[in-house]
Structure formats: C-alpha cells, structure tokens
Amino acid sequence: MSNAGRTVYVIGAGIAGLTLALALAKFGTTVVVLEKSSQIQVEGAGIQISPNASRVLDRLGVGRAIRAAAFVPKAIDIYPFRREKPLVSLAVGRSAEAKFGAPYWVIHRAELAKILHQACRRFANIDIRFGVRAVDIQTHARGLSLLFEDASGETRTVRPFAAVGADGVHSQTRMETVGGAPARYSGFVAWRCMLDLEKLGDILAREGTSLLWAPHFHGVTYPVPSSRQFNVVIMSKVKQADLTEIRLKQGPKLPRFWLKSAAFDELIARAGDRWTGWPVNTVPRHVWHRGPVGLIGDAAHAMLPFQAQGAAMAIEDAAVLAPLLVTEPDATSAFAHYAGLRRKRVAKVASLSRRNGFAFHLEWPFTIARDMVVSMQGPLAQLERLGWLYKYDPSPEVDTGPDRAA
Ligand SMILES: Cc1cc2nc3c(=O)[nH]c(=O)nc-3n(C[C@H](O)[C@H](O)[C@H](O)COP(=O)(O)OP(=O)(O)OC[C@H]3O[C@@H](n4cnc5c(N)ncnc54)[C@H](O)[C@@H]3O)c2cc1C
C-alpha cells in the first residue's frame, strides 16, 4: 500500500473532519485540518451514537475514552401526546450491543469533540490549524491548489493530493468548489437545553431516553450523567419569517399538559432563557465530489435529525473514504468509489428520518393506528427493524461498483 507523498487537507474540525483525520492518520497519511474557529467545539447538547458509528470509533482507538464519558441508555420510552406512562420501552443499550457487537452511547458533544481532538493530537502526522480563514480551492490540470490565511494572517498555498470538505451544512466547499446547492431550511427549529438532573425527579426515566410525540412537534430527552444534567430537545415548526434572534431565545411554544403531567410542563417552563433555538437545515440534493475535492458529513448530506443519524453517517463516511484515499490511484477515483459506496445508504437513512418526522407528528385520529402498531410490535421492534442500519460495518472491500459519473 503506497502512501508516500499523499497529503490530505480536511476543511472543518467537527465530528466528520476529526474522524477522517484519525482514520487517515492510521494509514500513515499526512493530514492537515483547517478549522475556522479558534478552538474545538465546546458548545451543544448531547448526541446519540448508534452501533454503526460506535463500531468505527472503537476501531479508531477512542472507544475507551468515550465509554468513560458516555451513558448507555437502557431503553427508549415512547410517550404519545398527553400520555403519562410510556406506550412502549424500546430496548437499546445492552441489547443493541449484544445484537450488533457495538454499543449505543449517549455523550455530550463537547466531550466527544474533546476525545477526538485529543486522539488526533497523539498523531505526529495530523496537524490541526485553528482560526483559518478564506480557504480557496482551485482544481486544474495538474491537480489541486489550496490557498488559505492562517491565524497569524499569513497566506499559504499548498498542493495536496486531495481536499475534503467536512465544513458542515453550510459548507463553502460544497457551494464554491463542488457545485452543490445552498442548504435549505427544513421548517423545524431544534430547541435545546440542558437541565439539572436532580430536578427530573421521577417524571421521566433517568436510565434511558424518552421520545415524546405530539401533533406537529416532538421531544427527546436523555440524561448526560457526566455533567449531571439531562438534555431536552424539542423540534417544532417555525415559519422562516419568524426565525429572529429574539424568537430563537424564547424557547418553544408548547401546549399545556403535553405529557398529561403538570410536573413536566413546569420543568420545561422553568428552563426559561436556557433554550437555544437551532433552525434545522438540510442538504436536499446530496453531492459527493468534483475531481480531487470530496465532501463528507453534513457538508455532503445534512439530513433531518429524526433518526439521530447525521453524525453517525459522517463517521461512516470517514471510515469508508480513508482507505480509498490511500489505495486508489488518484483522488478523483477515490472520491468516485466512495460516492458509489455511500450514496444509496445515506439516501435511505435520510428518507427514514423524514418518515419518522411524519409518524412522530401525526394528529388524532391517525395516531390511533400508529400507536396500536407500535405497541403490538413490542420492545425489540427498533432493534429488529433497524438491523440493516446498526449492523453496518464500513469496509472498503465491500464494492458495490464505482460511480465514475460524479
Ligand atoms: C437537534 C439535532 C440533534 C442531533 N442529534 C444527533 C444524534 O443524536 N446522533 C447523530 O448521529 N446525529 C445527530 N445530529 C446530527 C449531527 O449533529 C450532525 O450530523 C453532525 O454534527 C455533523 O458533523 P460535521 O462534522 O459534518 O459538521 P459540523 O459539526 O457542522 O462541523 C463542521 C466544522 O467545520 C467548520 N467550518 C465550517 N466552515 C468552515 C470553513 N469555511 N473553513 C474552515 N472550517 C469551517 C465548523 O466550524 C465546524 O467545526 C443532530 C442534529 C441536530 C440538529
């Protein structure tokens, strides 16, 4: 496996960019990560990491550190609108690990970012540069030129083997170099807050995740024990015209007795100004590469978060792409091969996420049939229905045919 002289520039040090850096560094590739922020992501709430992604992270050597900071939810309790007791508790946690050989974790995003960053720092062949501006990528007959301004204001020009845009949903790489479209507002705002765990009392399970369905909105809560908090995310519809800074700080407008429980209403109301509203944007037409410039993670395919798979897809992308950038004769064929391996699966996951939103937000009387089916399917339904998603093991040997058209 000849890897001499291959330097890969990765734009963005989010989950996608850092995972790719680690995966490439393991092959001895030189990786330079250009990040516009002055430090690694420290904000955000919790994130669920399903077995298809935890398997990759474990292999990259960060599993032990994540285990120490993460929480393994026992089950996902489903609460239809105004129902005090769960309709069903879907097994995840240990059951997922037993079935798929990899754990289901919940971790604070800042912790995950810190662990990935620390792991990268152990590799002499990974160079992460913060505070980088004005990244300009040009492709030409001789390959690729990348120009950027580093934190000291100095302009640098390099000629890497490949460039990878891991620069998130509003990816400049996608729009300016690869020729993809701008992200589109999904019509949903994700309202997030972290509340003190002791205030939860016995309103919702402390040892699992709760999924709360309601007409036109839904909520997800889970504890983040490492910070003695629990994470609340509420997805509700907000018109584009109402996406003002003030509105995004006000928190979601919710009906009373959402959970048929005044205690839960009060808990949510007490969050006050701790809400942060994040308009959810998606990339409607997934794009993967142009010549020696490729995209991974949200830059390529930001999707609705209703299956909690965006970061998992980014982690899978990195695991599939890294060996191809090492073994394929040139970067263009590596990206074409990668696109061929990823396109169908990512589209299927994005479509599952959309359909979940439809089911979560149903109104009466359609909820009757939905709740009956979910209840009849029982606690193992999620693991059985999503076997194709969770058992996936990204491997470059699984060749579904290169896509040379992109
Ligand atoms: C409410 C909500 C809940 C979610 N929950 C889950 C979940 O439980 N599980 C899951 O798997 N997924 C979840 N997701 C999806 C997940 O958050 C994203 O898919 C994931 O964070 C994408 O990672 P990324 O590295 O591709 O992009 P980002 O995290 O956006 O990282 C991009 C990085 O690039 C940098 N950057 C941007 N532009 C430039 C530039 N021009 N130059 C240099 N650097 C640049 C940014 O500063 C940033 O560091 C959720 C999403 C939402 C909205």
Could you characterize what this model shows?
The structure is a single chain. α1 packs parallel to α5 and α1 packs parallel to α10. The chain is 35% helix and 25% strand. The chain is α/β, with parallel strands linked by helices. The chain has 14 helices and 18 strands. Flavin-adenine dinucleotide (FAD) binds next to α1, β3, β16, α9 and α10.
> How many distinct beta strands?
18
Indicate the CATH topology of the domain at 7-72 and 103-183 and 282-356: FAD/NAD(P)-binding domain
Helicity level: 25-40%
Q: What count of helical segments does DSSP give?
A: 14
Give a short account of the largest sheet: 7 strands, mixed
Average pLDDT taken over every residue: 91
Q: CATH-wise, what's the superfamily of the domain at 7-72 and 103-183 and 282-356?
A: FAD/NAD(P)-binding domain
Features:
binds flavin-adenine dinucleotide; globular; disordered C terminus; 406 residues; seven-stranded mixed beta sheet; six-stranded mixed beta sheet
